[in-house]
């Protein structure tokens, strides 16, 4: 089968095994496909989930999805971007035709676009690209609407993070939680996603921003770098003790918005009870399939408000990526503060180990540019 190019990439071949650096084949782009030369790609927990077999068992996977790069080639019918454009890749390429889009809710698009054909190994084995992107590679093939143009002078390692985790946390506070100027918010779990929720709340003008975690180091970063006004180390605290501490910081009533950036039954329960009456709970942490939640139905009824989940921060890439890139360029949103280390393509497994130890918000793979 003819191909456009052969490049180096990182793939997962089986569950809980080290990744493999190998040569992959990029097909000739179909009419609406685009070849993007990757400049940087963040190492996300979702990539680790692929490696551990927690997404599906459709190995081998081409890993990587928090990416920025330059459009190198386009298919015959591409109109959305052109060669030379600097783009951030996204996994919600709104289709415009599904029932969500037709209802005016494209943030819930059920039929997002992907490349028309898979990338492969040299022997023809088809690869499943992580979140339809696959950017731990020198180049990747995506649908044109998976590309969002942003300011070409921006740091690829920073703005590429909008492609997943940072946008998820930021959007959980701003889009899903609808945090408003002067309101209060608490964020449980201040890894990359939770820290982004804190930064988003600060940008939106929240007056009380409470970071909750079991790591003093992360809590200090939340306060110094991302805008938290208060911190609580919840290690060893009962749910009721945590509720009391949050109420002490909010005039005895609880927060307007509570974000669960962990995604466990116990953290969701904490988020449910630390909010004010009619407050909003937002779940952006991703639970595992076996987790169950039990809450008194009368409490759900009696406390009112809203219980929401947040996919991709309920973002619209074409609206949000350029805006937050511009805010970053203006020094108003600290995207670069999430980049704790810059690594090479061969360092992904080491980055997964660092991630498991909770030592970084993001490791970012930077590609060698010819």
UniProtKB/TrEMBL annotation:
Pfam families: ADH_N, ADH_zinc_N
Keyword set, alphabetical order: Membrane, Metal-binding, NAD, Oxidoreductase, Transmembrane, Transmembrane helix, Zinc
GO terms for biological process, alphabetical: formaldehyde catabolic process
Top-level taxon of the source organism: Bacteria
SUPFAM superfamilies attached to this UniProt entry: GroES-like (SSF50129), NAD(P)-binding Rossmann-fold domains (SSF51735)
Positions of the Enoyl reductase (ER) domain: 19-365
InterPro entries reported in the protein's UniProt record: ADH-like_C, ADH-like_N, ADH_Zn_CS, ER, GroES-like_sf, MycoS_dep_FDH, NAD(P)-bd_dom_sf
Keyword rRNA processing: no
Cofactor: Zn(2+)
Keyword Metal-binding appears in the UniProt entry: yes
Transmembrane spans: 157-174, 186-212
One Gene Ontology term, aspect cellular component: cytosol
EC number(s) recorded for this UniProt protein: 1.1.1.306
Gene Ontology molecular function, alphabetical: mycothiol-dependent formaldehyde dehydrogenase activity; S-(hydroxymethyl)glutathione dehydrogenase [NAD(P)+] activity; zinc ion binding
Family recorded in the similarity comment: Belongs to the zinc-containing alcohol dehydrogenase family.
Name this polypeptide is given: S-(Hydroxymethyl)mycothiol dehydrogenase
